Amino acid sequence: MRRFTMTRAGDVDEALRATQSAPSQYCAGGTTLIDLMRQDVERPERVVAINRLPLTTIQSTADNGLVIGALATNSDVAHHPKVRSDYRLLSEAILSGATTQIRNMATTGGNLLQRTRCIYFRDPHSACNKRDPGSGCPAIDGFNRNLAVLGASEHCIATNPSDQNVALMALGATIEVRGVSSSRTIPIDQFFLLPGATPDIETSLEPGELIVAVTLPPMPGWRSHYLKLRDRQSYEFALASAAVAVRLDGSTIADARIALGGVGTIPWHAPQAQSALIGKAASREVFRKAADIALRDARPQSENGFKIELAKRCLVQALIEVTA
Amino acid sequence: MSVKSDEAVGSELATSLTINGELYQVEADSRTSLLDYLRETLGLTGTKKGCDHGQCGACTIHINGNRTLSCLTFVAMHDGDEITTIEGLASGEDLHPVQAAFLEHDGYQCGYCTSGQIMSAAAMIGEPWGPDDADVAEAMSGNICRCGAYQRIVAAIQSVRHSKEPS
Predict the structure, then answer these.
(1) What confidence category does residue B164 fall into, taking pLDDT thresholds of 50, 70 and 90?
(2) Which of A36, A121, A213, B32 could bond to A176 as cystine, CB 3.0-4.6 Å?
(3) What are A106-140's pLDDT values in tens digits?
(4) Do residues B69 and B137 both lie within one domain?
(5) Residue B76 sits in the same domain as residue B124
C-alpha cells in the first residue's frame, strides 16, 4: 500500500478542513476504501478517519420520517425498530448484502459511496475509464455478465453494487451534506450521476463535501419489500433486484415507488413504471406491464442480455409479494 | 489517553487500545491493518490472514463486542477500543461454550478458518437470528471453510444455542 497521511478527525469541521490541502478520502468503516487502497485502485495522499465523529444517531423526524446519521452502521440501521416497521425494504436490502462482519463496520454514508465490483475497475493493470479516465473500457466486449443494461455509456458499463442505495432510491431519501462553508440537501434522484463521458465522477458531491445524514420521508400506510436475485443465496451481489413500496386502497394501488438494483450504472429509479401502477387494481398483468416499462430502455452487453428478463420477473415477483 | 484530532505519516500516530483485557500503546505505520498489528507486532497469530480482502472471515475479531474483520481496518482508527481475539475468548482454562462445542462436534478439518469461525459464532449467538440451521448458515456466510466442515460447524453452533434456551 502507498504511503499516506492519516488525519483522525475529532469533529466535522476538522474533517472538512483536513481535506483542503491534499487529495483526500474520508474513511468511515473502511470496507470499500481500505480494500481498494490495498489493490492500488484508490490512491489518496490523505486519509481522513471519520469513524469517531458523532454521526451515529437514528431518530424520528418531526413529521414521523427518519433521519439516519451517516456513521450509523448497516447493522444498526437494518435492525432499528422503526426501519423494520416503517421501511422494511431498507432492512431487507441491507441484510441481503455482504455479511454480518462487514455490516457491523460499513456505514450508511460509506455505502452510498460504495464503488463498483467491475473486475476491470478493481484491477489496476487493466484499462478503465472510471479509475483512469481516457484509458478505455475493456468491459464492453469483455467480461460483462454482471454489468449494467440501463444507464451505460460508450465509456462505462459498470453496475452500482449497493443494495441499500436501491432501497433509498425507492424511498426518495435525501442526503444531508456538509462542506467547509456550506451545507445542503441532495435528493437521492440527483445524487448519483450517470457515467456519460465522465464515469470517474459518480455523485454530485463536491470535492471535500461530507455526507452527515440520510433522511427518509414518512411512509404511513405503505408496505414495502426488497427482492434480490443472485448466483448464490448469500454473500453475493445482485444480478437483479427490486425495491418496491406501495400504498393500497383496497386492491387498488393508490401510490407506488420502484427502484431496481444490479442492472443500472446507478441505483435505478423507475418513475414511469410507478405511474403505470397507480390507480390500477393489483394484478400480475399490470405488474408485467410496469416491468416492461421499467426495462424499456435496457440495452444488453455481450454477456448480460439475460438480466433484462430477469429484472422484469424480479420486479413482478416483488410486486406480487408486497401486494399479497 | 484521549486524541482529539491529529495526523501523521508513518509511525507518529499514537494509539492506545485494549486487547484481551490488556492495554497496549501502539505506534504503527498508518498503513498497518489491525490484523497485521495483532499478528506481526504482538504475535497474536490465532487471528488468521486468509484473503486480506474481507471475503473469507478468517480474521474475524470482536471490536467493542461486535464481530468485525481485522483486515479491513487500520489499527490507528481504534484508539480507545476494546478488542477480543481468539486468544482472549476463554476464561483461563475454561473454554468459551462455542470453543467447547467445536471440539465436541469436530467443527473443523485443517483448522485454518477455525478461529474466525469461532469468533464469528461467539458473537452470532447473541444476535437476532432465526432458529433454523438455514438461519445459522446465513448468519455465518462471512466465514468460508475450504475443507467443507459446514455441517459440523452448524451443529456446534446450534448445540450452544439450544443449551441457552430456557427449558
Answers:
(1) confident
(2) A213
(3) 999 999 999 999 999 999 999 999 999 999 999 99
(4) no
(5) no
pLDDT tens readout for residues B74-132: 999 999 999 999 999 999 999 999 999 999 999 999 999 999 999 999 999 999 999 99
Whether A33 has a pLDDT exceeding 50, the answer reads yes
Selecting from B123, B124, B141 the residue whose C-beta is nearest the C-beta of A235 gives: B141
Q: Mark which residues 53-112 of B lie under 8 Å from A by CB.
A: 53-54, 57, 60, 66-69, 72-74, 76-77, 79
C-alpha cell at A53: 465523529
Residues B77 and B111 in one domain: no
Q: What is the dihedral of CA A104, A43, B56, A261, to 10 degrees?
A: 70
Which domain CATH number covers B129? 1.10.150.120
Angle made by CA atoms A309, A313, A314, in degrees to the nearest 5: 115
Buried b (16+ CB within 10 A) or exposed e, B82-120: ebbbbbbbeeeeeebbbbebbeebebbeeebbbbbbbbb
| Domain encompassing residue B72 | 11-88
- CA B98 – CA B119 distance, rounded (Å): 9
> Looking at domain A223-323, which CATH architecture does it have?
2-Layer Sandwich (3.30)
A3 shares contact with chain B (CB less than 8 Å): yes
Our count of domains for chain B comes to: 2
Q: What is chain B's mean pLDDT, rounded?
A: 93
Q: Give me the residue from A5, A105, A234 closest to B73, CB to CB.
A: A105
Contacts of B54 in chain A (CB under 8 A): 31, 35, 101-102
Length of chain A: 324
CB environment A299-317: b (16+ within 10 A), e (fewer): eebeebeebbebbbebbbb
B118 shares its domain with B77 = no
pLDDT value at residue B2: 39
> Model's pTM, two decimal places?
0.96
Element (H, E) at A117: none
Cβ of B79 and A38 within 8 Å?
A: no
Residue B137 contacts A where some CB pair is shorter than 8 Å: yes
Whether residues B74 and A51 touch (CB distance < 8 A) is answered with no
Question: Chain B closest CA to A110's CA: distance in Å?
Answer: 14
What would the CATH number be for the domain defined by A5-49?
3.30.43
* B15 occurs within a structural domain: yes
What is the rounded average pLDDT for all residues in chain A? Answer: 97
Q: Which residues of A touch B74 (CB under 8 A)?
A: 6, 27, 30, 34, 47, 49
